[in-house]
Amino acid sequence: MFSRIKEDIKSVFDRDPAARNTLEVLLNYPGMHAIWFHRLSHKFWKAEWKFIARCLSTFSRWLTGVEIHPGATLGRRFFIDHGMGVVIGETAEIGDDCTLYHGVTLGGTSWNAGKRHPTLGNNVVIGAGAQVLGPIYIGDGSKVGSNSVVVKDLPVNSTAVGIPARVVNVKQSETEKSEREKVAKKYGFDAYAVSADNPDPVAKAIGRLLDHIHLMDNKVTDLCKEVNQLGGDVCQQALPELRVGEFVEDEKEAAKRRESVVASFDPEI
User: Fold this and answer.
1) DSSP 3-state of 154
2) Structural domain boundaries in the chain
3) Which of 20, 32, 186, 224 is the most buried (most CB within 10 A)?
4) If you ran DSSP here, which 8-state letter would residue 238 be given?
5) What is residue 65's DSSP assignment?
6) Residues 6 or more apart from 82 whose CB is under 8 A from it?
7) pLDDT per position in the chain (269 positions), as tens?
């Protein structure tokens, strides 16, 4: 038991730069207290002393702000940072070296008995406020962004964000990245972060649209050249410029408006 506690404390130092010494971790990390209480309540649960297990779990929730059902299975070196508001359901399974931040829910989507909570692989990180729901599997090394809602399996070493969460860490070659940046500037999207490593699924979708537009532009240009070489007279008129500012408030105008509001502010009010 004491060797596991020492292992837990070491894992805190590995993942939380705010931890200064062992005594501080022992006394001031409610996430760790909740895990230690759960180990005891889980033993009672396995021994079919389920009423005592639930009572101990409820006491732990009152003391730490973390609710872990005694039936849940937790791996080694599991760490709950800050702790408050974390909920881990009965059939949840968590692998080794996982990290959960405050407000995370590993919940179910059904009232039916049986497996209804998530399974986390090893080295998984779930950001603050994220909801991982249903009997799904989160692959080893995966990360879930804060306030995301995950309802489908995630592959190994993936990063998911959004509601519902989508995988966003799609690799892109340097050539593809350069071409996307060019067409983004052409259409006025360069300030809206459409790079492949952007964690916003909407920006990723815009990026894919830009890839499609770029390819279509090249094909139409080649077609126009061939038609003109055959004696035609097409594609002479330049396309109208498309700027995001037509749809979204221009940053300069917004800055001017903010300055006028500040200038009209009366400090004596």
Assistant:
1) strand
2) 2-167, 174-261
3) 32
4) P
5) S
6) 31, 101, 102, 128
7) 677 787 778 888 877 777 788 888 888 888 888 999 999 999 999 999 999 999 999 999 999 999 999 999 998 889 898 888 999 999 999 999 899 999 999 998 888 888 999 999 999 999 899 999 999 999 998 989 888 999 999 999 888 888 888 888 655 555 655 665 665 555 444 433 344 555 556 666 776 777 777 788 888 888 888 888 888 777 777 766 655 554 445 555 656 666 665 565 555 54
127 touches 159 (CB < 8 A): no
Distant-in-sequence, close-in-space partners of 156: CB < 8 Å, separation ≥ 6: 121, 139, 140, 141, 142
Tokens of 8: 């837990």
Output DSSP code: residue 134.
Answer: S
Q: How many whole angstroms from its chain centre is CA 220?
A: 39
Mapping DSSP onto H, E and C, the string for 110-130 reads CCCCCCCCCEECCCCEECCCC
Question: Residue 51: helix, strand or coil by DSSP?
Answer: helix
Q: Please state, in angstroms and rounded to a whole number, the distance separating the CA atoms of residues 133 and 117.
A: 6
For residue 155, cis peptide bond before it (omega within 30 degrees of 0): no
User: Residue 151 has what DSSP assignment?
Assistant: -
Which SS3 state, helix, strand or coil, does residue 75 take? Answer: coil
Collapsed DSSP state (helix, strand, coil) of residue 12: helix
- Decide if 207 contacts 195 (C-beta within 8 A): yes
Task: Reply yes or no on domain 2-167 having CATH 3.40.309.10.
Answer: no
Question: Angle at the Cα of 84 (from 54 to 77), degrees rounded to 5?
Answer: 75
**Measured between alpha carbons, how far is 175 from 53 in angstroms, rounded to an integer?**
58
Tokens encoding 68: 């872990």
Residues 6+ apart with CB under 8 A from 194: 180, 184, 203, 204, 206, 207, 210
CB 55 within 8 A of CB 69: no
